[in-house]
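ok so dumb question maybe but i'm new to this and my supervisor (M.) told me to 'just get the structure for Ribosomal RNA large subunit methyltransferase E' and walked off. so i did the thing. is this what she meant?? sequence i used:
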Amino acid sequence: MSVRSKSSKAWLNEHVNDHYVHMAQKDGYRARAAYKLLEINEKDKLIKPGTVLADLGSAPGSWSQVAAELAGEKGRVFALDILPMDEIQGVSFIQGDFREETVLAEFEALLGNRPLDLVICDMAPNMSGNAVTDQARSYYLCELALDFAVNHLKPGGNFLVKVFQGAGYQEYMAAMREAFAVVQTRKPQASRNRSSEIYLLAKNKR
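this is what came out, is it supposed to look like this??
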């Protein structure tokens, strides 16, 4: 058995004592991230009965769970992740790498030319431990997600994406403002304070 590092011990201790982890277990959500989307949706009313949306980077599925509940039987949730995801009622899922053209084409075929009301993206790259590399990889995924949103959202549609503050943040905000009327930041309470993650909400696609 390898000895746990102090940082991984601290993470484990935080995780075990995490209010949102306990809530997720009690409420039947697959991850604490569910409460980030619930809190943002409470404020911004992005997902309503009948909403048609795509969830990029969906595994293990907590955002898809929330989205399917809120969109209801008249809504549709299309989800994509490089990792496997157990089935969720009301969610159509494809496993594959979002960066590959063939996977994107398969996902677009699943959409069947439906214009989307909303694109949500809680995607993050596999972390290498090199901050510069990880930041660059993260924004590459975010840029792909923005491109997808611009191409598949109906006029007036919305886009919610997780980003990490640092290099590339201002440029990415500027790119979002070119495509959407309003871009706002959201830092839900379920997002850990020490994390540099922040959510950008782009409203009303031009």
